[in-house]
Amino acid sequence: MTENRKSDLIHDLLLPTLLFAALGGMSWAVRGSSGYGGSSGCIFAGVLWGAAWWFIARDSSPVQTRRYASAWIIFALTVGIGFSGNRGWMQWSSFFEGRLQTNYSKGEFLPISPAYGFLWLFIAGVPWAGLGACLLAWCGPKQPFRAWHWVARIAAGVCGVILARFLFNQLPDLFLPLHSSIADRYQDLETNPNLRRLINDNRNAITHLGLYLGFLGFELARRDWKNVLLIVTVGGLNGIGWAACQNWKWAPGVWPGVNFNWWRCWESSGGISIGIAYGVAFYLVNRRMSPEEAANQAPAFVNTRPNLERFGAYLGLVYGLGLSIQNGLKGWANIYLGNEDYWERQFWFVIGPLMLLAIAALAIRVWKTPHPSGHAGDPLPHSFFLVWLVLIVQNILAQLVTGPLSNRNELVFNIYYLVLFIITGAIITHYHFRKAADPYHAGGDSA
After folding, report:
1. Residue 44 in contact with residue 394, Cβ under 8 Å?
2. Burial of residue 367, with CB atoms counted within 10 A of its CB: 0-12 exposed, 13-18 middle, 19 or more buried
3. pLDDT tens sequence across 50-76
4. What is the torsional sign of CA 189, 192, 194, 195?
C-alpha cells in the first residue's frame, strides 16, 4: 500500500507537474519571441500541454480509468490557452517599480503602490491559464451532455462577459488604478497614451475573468465538483504564481549591471507557473480509478465514439502545429531575412491551404476506415508517435526563433530549451514504457 501511494505521487503529481512545467518553461518563453506573441504564442504552448496531458492520461482500452483523457483535450487546450493570449500585460509591469506610466516615450509617470502590480497580474493570470482548464473540463463530462446543456454552458460564459464589461464601464474607479484622483488624465488619452493601453489591458483582463467565472458558475450550478476543482486550481494557482513572479522586475536589482533578457526569463517563469498549476490539477482531479470503478461510472468514461476521438486528436494537432509552424517560420525569417509582414503572407499562402487539406484528408481517412461503436482496440495506437511529433516540431521551432547564436543571451536560451526538451522527452518515454507494462492501461485486470 505504501509503495502504491509513492507510485501515485510520482506518476500522478511529481512527474506530470515536472512535465507540464518544463513544457511551459520552453513554450511560454518562445511565446514572446520573434514570430509569436499574443494568441499565436499561446497556441504554440497550448498544443504542447494538450498533447502531453492527453498522452499521460489515456488508456489504450475503450474504458478510460481517468476522467479527463479524451483526445479532444489537445484541441481544447490549444483553443482555450490560445484565446487567452489575445490581450496584453505590458502596462502592469511598471507598477512593481512604483510607476504608473502615462507617456513612456517622454518619461512621464505617476507614483503608484506596487500592490497594484500583484493585483493585476493575479487578475490576468487566473483566466490566462483558467480558460484552458474550462475547456479541458468540457472533455470529461460526468454525465452525458445534451444540446441544451451546451447552450446553457456557452450562455453562462457569455453572461459572465456581459456582466464584466458592464461593471467595468460603470465602475472605472474600481478597475482603473488611481482613476478617482486622475480622472482628467484618463480623459486626455492623446497626452497620456499609456493610459489608453492600460484601459484596454484592464478591460480585456476583466472580460476574460468574466468569461472564466461564467463557465465556473455553470459547473457550480451543476454541482460537478471535479470540474469546479480543476478550473479553480488551475486559475487560482497561476494567478498566485504570476503575481509572485512580478514580471522579473526585481532581477536588475539582484544582478546589477548584468545585461540579460530578463523579460524572457519572466515569460519562461510564467509558463512554468501555468505548468505547475496544471500538474497539481492533474493530481487532484485525474487520478486513476480501478477498471471496475471506471466501468461502473457513467457512459461518458467509455469511448463509444472512437471515430470522433480520432478526428479530435487530428484536428487539434493540425490546428496547433500548423499555426505554430507558420509563425515559427515567419519568426525565423524576421531574424535572418527581415520584413516579417512579407514572410507572414508568403508562408500563410502555403501553410493555410495545407492545413485545410490535411484536416480534410484525415477526416476522409477516419470516415473510410471507421471503428465500430464500442471498439475494443485502441482508436489511436500511434499516440506515442503523435506526442513525439509535437515535441520535436515545437522544439525545432523554438530553436529557429532563438538566435542568432552569436548573441550570448540567445545562445543561453537555445541551451535551456535543449535541456527542457531532454527532460520532457525522458518523461514521455517513461510513461510510454510504463503503459506498455501496466495492465490498467492495457485494459486488463489489476495486478
Report:
1. yes
2. exposed
3. 999 999 999 887 778 899 999 999 999
4. negative
Q: How far is CA 184 from CA 95, 167, 196, 365, in A?
A: 20, 20, 13, 62
For the stretch 256-304, pLDDT in tens is: 989 899 999 999 999 999 999 999 999 999 998 765 665 555 554 556 6
Around Cβ 114, how many Cβ atoms within 10 Å? 15
Averaged confidence pLDDT in the chain: 91
Q: Which helix (DSSP H) or strand (DSSP E) does residue 124 occupy?
A: helix 115-137
At 302 the three-state DSSP class reads: strand
Cell numbers placing 40? 499565436
In whole angstroms, give the CA distance from residue 92 to residue 274. Answer: 19
The three three-digit cell numbers of residue 282, written as one number: 492533474
Return phi, psi of residue 200, to 5°: -65, -45
Q: Name the burial class of residue 430, with classes exposed (0-12), middle (13-18) and buried (19+) by CB atoms within 10 angstroms of its CB.
A: middle
- Rounded to whole angstroms, the Cα distance separating 252 from 292 reads 56
Burial profile 326-348: b = 16 or more Cβ within 10 angstroms, e = fewer: bbbbbbbbbbeeeeeeebbeebb
Cβ atoms of 65 and 291 closer than 8 Å: yes
pLDDT digits 0-9 by tens, 326-361: 999 999 999 999 888 899 899 999 999 999 999 999
C-alpha 138/C-alpha 143 separation (Å) is: 11
CB 121 within 8 Å of CB 94:
no
- Residue 180 makes CB contacts below 8 A (sequence gap 6+) with 173
| Domain extent at residue 112 | 2-442
CB 328 within 8 A of CB 401: yes
First to last CA, the chain: 13
Q: Which three cell numbers stand for residue 217?
A: 458558475
Residue 161 is inside which H or E element, if any?
A: helix 147-170
Q: At residue 377, what is the residue type? A: G
Tell me whether residue 188 is in a domain. yes
- Find all residues with CB under 8 Å of 109, minimum gap 6, and list them: 94, 99, 100, 101, 102
CA 310 to chain CA mean position, Å: 22
202 within a domain of the structure (yes/no): yes
Its pTM stands at 0.93
Of the candidates 199, 193, 270, 281, which has an alpha carbon nearest to the alpha carbon of residue 234? 281
Domain count, the chain: 1
Q: How many CB atoms lie under 10 A from the CB of residue 131? A: 27
